[in-house]
Amino acid sequence: MKNCEYQQIDPQALPTPTPTPPPHHGKDTEKKKEPRRPRRKWEVFPGKNRFYCDGRIIVARQSGVLPLTLGLILVTSGLFFIFDCPFLVKHLTSCIPVIGGVLFVFVLITLLQTSFTDPGILPRATPDEAADIEKQIARLRSLCFGSDNTGNTSYRPPPRTKEVLINQQVVKLKYCFTCKMFRPPRTSHCSLCDNCVERFDHHCPWVGNCVGKRNYRFFYTFIVSLSFLTAFIFGCVTTHLALRAQGGKGLVFALQESPGSAVELVICFFSVWSILGLSGFHTYLVASNLTTNEDIKGSWSGKSGEDVTNPYSQKNIFINCCSVLCAPMPPSLIDRRGFLPTDESAQTGSADIELPTLAAKSEINVCTQGTKGLLESAALSPLLSTSCPQGKPQNAHSCPETSPALNSDPTSEFSKGCRGNHMSSSHGDTSHPRHTKARSKKCKREALHIPNPAFDVPVSPTSPDAAPDSKARSHKGGSLTPLH
Amino acid sequence: MAETHSLQDMRQQTAITAKVFIQRDYSSGTMCQFQTKFPSELENRIDKQQFEETVRALNNMYAEAEKLGSQSYIEGCLACLTAYTVFLCMETHYEKVLKKIAKYIQEQNDKIYAPRGLLLTDPIERGLRVVEITIFEDRSLTR
């Protein structure tokens, strides 16, 4: 405990950040006595998110291809209203722009809500909680192994799984080294956002955010309304061109008269299949109360011949749909706009001694959290860097989602492959390596690079390399979240 | 360690000596429920019955918050029709129950736990992961 000499230890230098690392802590300790404006919790949020409007809006650090998504929707709808609607209103009915307008507004609102809503991020464990969990685990270990061969249990990494019984089904809860807690069921850690997200579905680059418990219903509504919008525009454009080409004038003449329609036709033709497919896939997931993550991993499909069923399903399609889409909206757990306690003792309090606010409080907190804690963090950091790789795709639970509208063959083949994978999810694991070999050597290499066996990340099909757009590729590569 | 902190400690009559964490109970799924097992650290502090009653009351309130009833269906459908913009204006059912829970915890602290040197922390402040019970001890007595 030589550290307790009240020398300032820079929290930034710690391998793993404390749950609420104040970013300007170095400067603050000198200015402690001066009145400072109270800071909000979003300002010290440890995950990789960006906040706007004083914490009201949250997005992932990488916005993915959200601008592209918005651009495509706006361009296509704009061209529709400019080129097709006047003609169709004259020749058919004026309901068409009304319907189109309603769908367009719906799509835009749900897209923005999906992107800007907290997906269900779990705040990281406070140091006290983390210490308590470690103590429990050490106690259990010493009970299991006896006192002779455990050695110094304090520095051993905690066991990584805990089993619970949910509706007569054994579910393994994994320990998250970043968030320092056992993840609740259905929770997964997104490496792109560096957060544990409840009921994690996937990280969607198209919306630039994770899809989890709180924004799944927005996401589902978005893709369903987008499929209606795309199909509607496609239908209207086809009708428009057909009407123009009547009387022997020909399609070329029609396209020359209305060039915007050609653009819309191309965009809609390629997007309608993938988006309809995606909506169908998610409708299946909603009806069986599954997440994309679970479906891809084949968690409840009895892959190893065990008699496993989904413990969360209510065995009734209607009830499943209602519980996923119409359940009461859960609150955001991260309290972005709450103020930090002025003495910051509630958040960064040490495991056993709570001290009054002092200029040297930060140092005390660091040293009472322990040399033990520091050493443990140091021991864990190489593990962390391999286990939570940034942008290393291992799972394609976003695979159907990343089948971009504009890609043709690789994606459609891939989407089919993904859905094929989903259909034959009873052979979930066996299909994964096959897809991986075909898809992404990069992903497979990096998946194999992960040495930690407890992080049983299934190697799944990925689509990043299929994207022609290099920006999209890098984002998609980064978007696939290793699950551990 | 004790020597270096003794100056600060002496200033305080009471200081926290321990925190007990009541973990979540996942046996009925992902619903927010807490374990009613009585922690050993509270044995000489509070009555087991009292503690279990508090936790059960909390569990019931959380179950009410997450209940799938006709009201939540109507709210959900209405929200969907308005592209979920109602969530921006209206307080959701869950939030209303959370306020109720906060009040209940405050009440329990005032009436039962504070006189025994304990403090319940609202689980929402810990991300609905744990119920944190802080045990205060009068240092002047222990030293």
UniProtKB/TrEMBL annotation, chain B:
GO cellular component: Golgi membrane; Golgi stack; palmitoyltransferase complex
An example Gene Ontology biological process: protein targeting to membrane
Signal peptide interval: none
InterPro entries: Golgin_A_7/ERF4, Ras_palmitoyltransferase
Keyword terms, alphabetized: Golgi apparatus, Lipoprotein, Membrane, Palmitate
Compartments it resides in: Golgi apparatus membrane
Main location: Golgi
Pfam family, one: Erf4
Protein task: May be involved in protein transport from Golgi to cell surface. The ZDHHC9-GOLGA7 complex is a palmitoyltransferase specific for HRAS and NRAS.
Family: Belongs to the ERF4 family.
Name this polypeptide is given: Golgin subfamily A member 7
Gene transcribed to yield this protein: GOLGA7
